[in-house]
Amino acid sequence: PTPAPEPSYSIGFTPVAANRDDTVTVPAGYSVAVMLKAGDAIESGADSYSGSYPTPAQAEKWAGGNHDGMEYFELEGTDPNAGGLLAINFEFPDYNILMAGSYNAATATADQKAIALSAVGIGVVEVARGSDGKWAVKSGSKYNKRYTGNSSYRAGGPASGLLSGTIKGMLNNCSSGRTPWGTYLTCEETTDNYLDPTQPARNYGWVVEIDPYQELAEPTKRTAMGRFNHENVAYMANADRRVAFYMGDDSTPGCIYKFIPSRAYSATNRASNIDLLDYGTLYVAKFNGDGTGEWIALVQGQNGLVAGAQDPGNVSQSVTPPAATTVNFTSQADVLINTQSAARVAGGTVMDRPEWITVAPDNSSIYVTLTNNSGRRVASPSNPRTTNLHGHIIRFSEEGNSPLATKFSWEIFLLAGDPGFSAGGANLTGDINGDTFSSPDGLRIDPKGRLWVQTDHSVPGSSGVSGVTIEDVVGHNAMFTIDQQTKQSKRFLVGPEGCEITGLAYTPDLKTFFVNIQHPTGNWPINGEEPRSSTVVVTRDDAQPVGN
Ligand code: FEO
Ligand code: CA
Ligand code: CA
Ligand code: CA
């Protein structure tokens, strides 16, 4: 079935021109302010960064680095449009404010390891809008808390017995998501602890559930959701409170997954959802050439997941097929710890680095960014470009718009690129209608159904045209809104030098947008100081909803 036509979601603002200014540019009539920088104190008892390297104890209380996915949570008794909790991922340390030189795992001192591990994980902060209209972290709030690469985590689900009893750390907290019962899901994008190689590798590469209100279980790695290079999680729920969680594996190449808990969640008894993510079925997506697709269950004993299974390997990266390898799936824990291999054995389609996934509020469509895959040598219908330098976006619809569906339909929503790259061949021009970009990554449909896209092209970044970088044509990484029906793309925000744009959260009235600026390299956010990853706040000067 063809996805139902959607209403037009055009947004009224004057698009920002592509630029290479060392600042955050927003449309006329909008303002942007920096709210939380790497090195700002989150927990009390430590001063914020002010030019000196931290002690391990200090770093453990600071905002970490490379801010990425985030979610906004309402607080009972507080006007949610004026204050709430923000849970923010820290993907990677901002080393320039942490230690002299760069980190080297082989030679790092114990203090340097502890400091580096402090700068990944997540932070929860209570934020509030002041009487001057400016948003700030409420210092001293009981909700302000860090969960780092040094903190302790438990494991739940079928593979938990094969993990350490108490796990040290989570890391590469890339993007994130939430559950309908108000917990935060933070995603580990690496499957080993490269900052502390003494830790067992199977302890990493999971979705971690954390309660920002600190009421439910301690932070838990949910093994039933699979182990891979997790990007984000987006859920779809139906009227019966059954839910599916969609996830991308940002690998070159990687598959797309969904996890369906075996029971409905409770909307009235929050505590009864405490182990919901430990029981259910993990599926991998298979994209057929005729625009149909199917979800294949990754269950030991089914779909080839048995002892002596033959993993075909990454068939897209070489015109000569790689040799198959033997993998023994003798338990569901084997399947979950080796999810990437299980997915290929079962027939999942290897995709061009699936990054963010987002679900429309009416469940009619799901979008996924395939950021790029310069090493693709064998095209497939859903990954149609070899040497895919600029990426694409796919839209798919579940059969009956149901989270429980085992079949879906799909289409290429757009191919990224720019006509300015035509000298490098047709693979590079793309078909974006309006403001162009490369390497879509962050992706979110807001509650009004408006699609937002954030980019992460490399800097300088090979455009595919000799002597022309990606930035030469599309400028710094930026954030766009794309009308789902007309596919008109409009540039809303442009980041400073060297950064990527990632992470989007908002207040319920959509008057306040929180956006993350990751790994800037110039003089932003404070001229004359070290550059720092930061969360910024975007508002309209007339106090109306963004893009109303
Ligand atoms: Fe952390 Fe795949 O971006
Ligand atoms: Ca990303
Ligand atoms: Ca990326
Ligand atoms: Ca990144």
From TrEMBL:
Residues 539-548 have a biased composition (Basic and acidic residues). Transmembrane segments: none annotated. InterPro entries: PhoX (IPR008557). Coiled coil: none annotated. Residues 522-548 are annotated as: Disordered. Pfam families: PhoX (PF05787). PANTHER family: DUF839 DOMAIN-CONTAINING PROTEIN, SLR8030 PROTEIN. This is dTDP-glucose 4,6-dehydratase. It comes from Sphingobium jiangsuense. The lineage of its organism: Bacteria, Pseudomonadati, Pseudomonadota, Alphaproteobacteria, Sphingomonadales.
